[in-house]
Specification:
Structural class: mainly beta
Helix content: 10-25%
Largest sheet: 8 strands, antiparallel
Radius of gyration: 18 Å
Distance between the termini: 28 Å
Number of helices: 3
Strand order of the largest sheet: 3-14-4-5-6-7-8-9
Length: 233
């Protein structure tokens, strides 16, 4: 499939998470996640209401992503030692996306040119699928349906008008701000949400850059200290 486009260089002083990120300025971060729990698309309430500091921080994060106009980054996810996916994405609003998705032994190309989407697969290089993609949200959702957005947080951050209330999945039994931490050279605000009970209890720990409020690291896994996440992204 030869359907591609190139954006004019647009330098943005931001770093997004979801793996190794290369905006026009390059930074590398780690995102870890558990495949056992998925990120939900909408949240109406918290079992534990967030305090003012957490509420303010989530609002700043949502605003930062809402204002993001163009980006180029790589999302990498590993599930144990048996599965790995890598997605290289270039996007520009209002509605242009160019992504290469490598999952196991399959490589897909996903392109949106403003009106239409095109998808091909290495499993049949002679064919491609074309369909309508009327807006940016539809294009990002199409990317998700083709396995190009990891555990599911990226579409929420990029497209939801209510992202501030959807970043934290479910209704956590505990939601608090932890001590600041560094991810690479970046100082981060850290929020932890605990969801589930008993053997299904999991901790979601988010690290957001203090300067731009964009996600640097997410770990999802057992609450027990020292436990390894099942999936890294």
């Amino acid at each position: 499939m030869v359907h591609s486009f190139k954006f004019a260089e647009h330098v943005i002083n931001v770093a997004i998470v979801c793996g190794k990120i290369n905006f026009m300025k390059t930074s590398t971060y780690l995102l870890a996640a558990s495949v056992a729990l998925s990120l939900t698309p909408s949240i109406s309430a918290f079992a534990q209401a967030p305090d003012a500091e957490v509420t303010s921080l989530l609002g700043q994060v949502a605003t930062s992503y809402r204002n993001l106009q163009s980006a180029s980054f790589t999302l990498e996810m590993n599930q144990g030692a048996t599965f790995k996916s890598v997605t290289k994405i270039v996007l520009k609003k209002p509605n242009m996306v160019n992504a290469t998705i490598v999952r196991g032994d399959e490589t897909k190309h996903y392109v949106v040119d403003g009106k239409s989407l095109y998808v091909d697969s290495s499993k049949d290089a002679k064919k491609f699928v074309k369909g309508p993609s009327a807006d940016f949200s539809a294009s990002i959702n199409g990317l998700a349906q083709n396995g190009g957005t990891g555990v599911g947080l990226l579409p929420i951050l990029l497209t939801s008008a209510k992202a501030e209330s959807q970043i934290i999945p479910g209704k956590p039994t505990s939601l608090k701000k932890l001590a600041d931490a560094n991810v690479g050279t970046d100082s981060c605000d850290v929020i932890q949400a605990v969801l589930g009970t008993g053997e299904r209890e999991s901790a979601y720990t988010f690290s957001f850059g203090k300067t731009d409020h964009l996600l640097r690291k997410l770990t999802i896994g057992p609450v027990k200290a020292g436990s390894e996440p099942q999936v890294t992204e």
